[in-house]
From TrEMBL:
Signal peptide: none annotated. PROSITE patterns: GNAT (PS51186). GO terms for molecular function: acyltransferase activity. Gene3D superfamilies: 3.40.630.30, ATP-grasp fold, A domain, ATP-grasp fold, B domain, NAD(P)-binding Rossmann-like Domain, Succinyl-CoA synthetase domains. It comes from Sphingomonas hylomeconis. Its EC number is 2.3.1.-. Keywords: Acyltransferase, ATP-binding, Ligase, Nucleotide-binding, Transferase, Tricarboxylic acid cycle. Pfam families: Acetyltransf_1, ATP-grasp_5, CoA_binding_2, Ligase_CoA_2, Succ_CoA_lig. This is GNAT family N-acetyltransferase. Residues 730-884 form the N-acetyltransferase domain.
Amino acid sequence: MTIRNLGTLLHPRAIAVIGGSRRAGALGTLVLDNIVAGGFAGPIVAVNPKRVDCDGVAWCSDIAGLPETVDLAVVVTPAATVPGIIAELGARGVKAAVVISAALQDEAARQAMLDAAKPHLLRIVGPNCLGMLMPHARLNASFAPRRATPGTLAFLSQSGALVTAMLDWAADKNVGFSGVVSVGDMVDVDLGDLIDVYAADPKTEAILLYVEGVTDPAKFLSAARAASRIKPVIAIKAGRSAAAGKAAMSHTGALAGAYDVYAAAFERAGIILVETLEGLFDAAQILCRYRPTCGDRLAIVTNGGGAGVLATDALPAAGGSLARLSEATITALDRDLPQGWSRANPIDVVGDARPDRFAVATRAALDDPGTDALLVVHCPTAVATGVEIATAVLAGLPPQRPNGKPVIACWMGGQNAASVRDLFTAAGIPLFDSLDDALGAFRHLRRATAARQALLRVPEGTTIAPADRDGARAIIAGARSDGRTVLSAVEAKALLQAYGIRTVPARFAPNADRVARACDGLAPPYAVKLVSPQLTHKSDVGGVALDIASPQEAATAAARMAVRIGRDHPAATISGFEISAMVDRRDKHELLIGIADDATFGPILAIGAGGKAVEILHDRALGLPPLDETLAREMIAATRIARLLDGYRDVPAADLTAVIAALNAVSAIAVDLPDILELDINPLLVDATGAIALDARVRISAEPAASRLVIRPYPAAWVADLVTRSGVAMHVRPVRPDDEALLADFFRRVSPEDLRFRFLTGLNEVGRDRLIAMTQIDYRRTMHFLALAPDGAVIASAMLASDPDRARSELAISVRADCKKQGVSWSLLQHVLRYAAAEGIASVESIESSDNHAALALEREAGFEVVPGDDYQELTVRRAISAA
């Protein structure tokens, strides 16, 4: 849906409990008691036909009697009453409702509830949920047995039981929340909506998710990707143990398990996926305290040599490396540590260490320029208590740690850790009682850092051969007109060729008698393969004959194959035979590249080891289209066979560029041709000279299909060549992620005054953080058009950033200093308005400096109107958009 009115959840003025009660054990009683006990500062109203007497709670018998200030309602009435209650709440002006009521399983009842809310823009959390807790508003609108303390974590869960478990853990660890929401059945408000809400919430430092499934995957990924750029998003996905394989024509379909598809989608969105509830807790503890900007060099201070060795052994798996101490640090520590200290990292302060040794070593390690983060490990001894050591360590840390270096504490043993937990909590330092958990937390911090860096990097451009899209669509249409949903091998290879993927030349023979003639023009030896819509895995049924020396032998092999198939598989139809020249496989690697159709995320790409044993090897990486060079390279690197592609012994390295091109071409097929449900290239033979597809299978939909992409591809349809009113020719196109340098050069040629107008602040140079935000955009939410001169330089920029609900978009336009007063702004603005209309954006706004007279005149001419406001230095102009 949208995020409209969802701010009410975080900051309600007054709350009503529909079904609030004083009956012992009633759900309405539990919820009402929790709200009162939480200390909510606003009015609380219980709505019940029977009188409710409760301190601090007003009572009214029906919704019509609610005060106008009530903007949030909690509904705990029987399911059958909910649609009517929602209609009454909406008419009364309530903006949001948390429907705890269960048993709303009937689709008609759910739709009736949504229909009742729609005219009033009333938002619904639930139904069938535990409720929500907003600690900063002192609101516990749930029937959870524990309250939440204020903090910086937002926890969004599809399981009410997980909410109570999280609250128990947080109470033990002194961790607080900015919000806890049990989302229930997500009939209206879903995870994507709430991610958007908490991404914009200044009190939230990290977002935790418990995910069973997503209802709107495109919105979910868009929201998560936007949030992950500014704060960590951590998720645990239920259902890992569910059967991954399913009946599928292609190897790719059989290999793409649902959990693994979620993992690939989460990675693309920058979500850190953890596998256990403990991992979620550990990630929460560290990521609510440190921003994900940590390097991998870890310093370790410990009084246990064995603990240091174990930490060192586990560090590579945590994505870290041992920091190398400088000579200056070692010399300084020589003065304060006993002769037997390690004189290296890990810094072993020796088992009889008293508090002063820990304090000196901790400060020295943290000050060392080669250290990115610090792990302090205390093993209990009789020399000093854990409290004494912790007090000294904390006293030695500067109030603002240098360079924001994270400090992780590990006080080994449950009692040892419990004795110092309050000390470390007050200091804002995460504490663990085992090395595994402490290093796991460091791993989460490193993964969050890597995820953020991946979202901010400049990718390589995508280079594939020009595609013959019309030819590919004609192949699909031809098969569909024949009533087939499986392309023949010849058709499948022709489709690959249309996208620049090199294939082995092949001929088709409708029967064994025509096989010899089909060999004409092909060099022996030959391969003969069965073509049957029922038997797609030909080698499994003896449908492949290799190394055939002559056309006559090829015909004989086909005839024998037909007899054998007719005997062993009488129900199978033999459409004919594919004949191709054999390819020398020496020193070649067999890869699989394919497309599978996922019920949630649409087309999924796969690459890995190919050949007959593909399911047994189970070596594959999954990804979502569209790809770029960097994403394709990373998918390949995630496979085990990637190490072989690098070359070994006397086998030269494979042509990785050719593999990347093939994977990008398959990605383009997934983007352009939604009719393709499954595609296998198996094997794709790769060596130092290039890549060639030996065999391919393609299954299409029975009817023309709409695109199911959850990540919007580059909007090439909005590339245009325009001529301004003064005759200036310019090429307008959406921005690409690799345009950062081009845009930086543009802004260097924008006047200082226009920079001020564009960013509404004094700005001498547009930094990389702004350039990244303007080039690496989510086309679902943002559009940025560049106008280029014939020499390829940018002469104008127009960025349109939409709210998640697309009710409004904010526009900013800049023109190069030497290109002003030539109609560039007008032509670019008209292009933007056409785009906004096509996208269904309700209104376009621009915030202008009141002295930017040229922009205000342009916008008035284009139909914008000034929106009244109190700020006379900045003016908001707005234009409603008519649907295209």
